[in-house]
Backbone:
């Protein structure tokens, strides 16, 4: 037989006060290191770009429903002069704001194109990231 003295709660599956304090300290450091990473991720998502249309389909125009059509099709819009930024896309989707340098109808067509993006298409990852909830 041993003459070891056990602390209350030790050996019966109940953590000691000291162990709980150590776990709390470890948890606090994890929270401190994750927060800046989330801020960095949010900033990069807002600065990502979505080409309309992607480079594989350059020269095509965008119909009102977001499909790509031949240039000069009535009711279709020429692509924007530059890729759209994540921040602009999020604002257009959430608030209905037109993209810089476009009118309401062209902006709506571009947003419809973006909503139709599929995996493997330029801009898909940016668009998917915009839809993820941020903590």
Residues:
């Amino acid at each position: 037989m041993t003459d070891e003295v056990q602390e209350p709660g030790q050996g019966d599956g109940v953590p000691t006060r000291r162990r709980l304090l150590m776990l709390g300290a470890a948890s606090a450091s994890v929270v401190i290191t994750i927060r800046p990473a989330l801020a960095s991720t949010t900033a990069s998502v807002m600065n990502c770009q979505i080409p309309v249309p992607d480079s594989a389909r350059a020269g095509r125009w965008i119909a009102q429903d977001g499909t790509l059509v031949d240039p000069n099709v009535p009711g279709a819009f020429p692509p924007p002069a530059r890729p759209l930024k994540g921040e602009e896309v999020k604002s257009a989707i959430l608030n209905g704001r037109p993209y810089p340098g476009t009118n309401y109808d062209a902006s709506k067509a571009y947003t419809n194109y973006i909503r139709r993006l599929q995996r493997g298409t330029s801009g898909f990852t940016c668009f998917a990231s915009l839809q993820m909830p941020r903590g």
Q: What stands out?
A: The first strand starts at residue 49 and ends at 50.
